[in-house]
Prior knowledge:
The chain folds into 2 domains: 1-37; 38-262, Glucose-6-phosphate isomerase like protein, domain 1 (Rossmann fold), CATH 3.40.50. It contains 9 helices and 7 strands, in the order H-H-H-H-E-E-H-E-H-E-E-H-E-E-H-H.
Amino acid sequence: MVEKVSEKTSLKSLAEQLKERISKDEIELKEKKSKEKVKDISDEDIEEISKKISKKEVEEEKKSISSKDETLLPLEDYIKCAVHLGTKVITPSMRKYVYKRRADGLAVINTIKIDQKLRETIDFLKNYKPETIYLVCKREAGWNAAKKFEEATGIKVFTKKYSPGITTNLSLSNFFESELTMICDPWIDKNALNDTIKLKKPIIALCDTNNYTFGITKIIPCNNKSGKSIGCILFILAREYCKQIGKPFKYSLEHFTGPLEA
Length: 262
């Protein structure tokens, strides 16, 4: 009887693994086809455009946003940080956060929705202690902000390298346990994403318009290619998280983003 139950459990486990593998393969195929269909802009170009947000652009974008509610950061700062700039590719799961395209074809993410999703994420994040969380940011543009995030919150951060299996393989010398994973790009940081999916643990992710969101618990729609934008999002998460857990916070937005003069 015990053997039969064990066999059933094993078959169920194999079926779940196969289903997850098929889902991941389908996502990667869709992502490849999307990029072939629409020639996307490079990360470097997005970074350059993000650095050159003018005062005129800030004012024009502010006019197009209608909100009577107070935001976590002044709308002007969100726009200066280019958090609203997407890519030319829009995946089905990210379409609901986009409200228009620019003349150059770039998608524009609704800033109010970014703010709303940040609030939801902070409400979720506050339930976890710093030592049970880790953040991965392999994109070089976000390294400075990621390090500041670690300093401010005490949350473990991986930048240049995250070795697959370090949260799933007990035999590895650098193995560690965690309850929550944070990633800055589901594609670039896919090793951490896949490890966390295997463990069935929650995932918070910064997602651009060209990202697929399979397995992600909390999505923060934003420009995740630019240092300023990543810095802005991580600054808000760090500030509000520290506020929730009663930890002093001594940083300004520019500590995370660098100079923001438009």
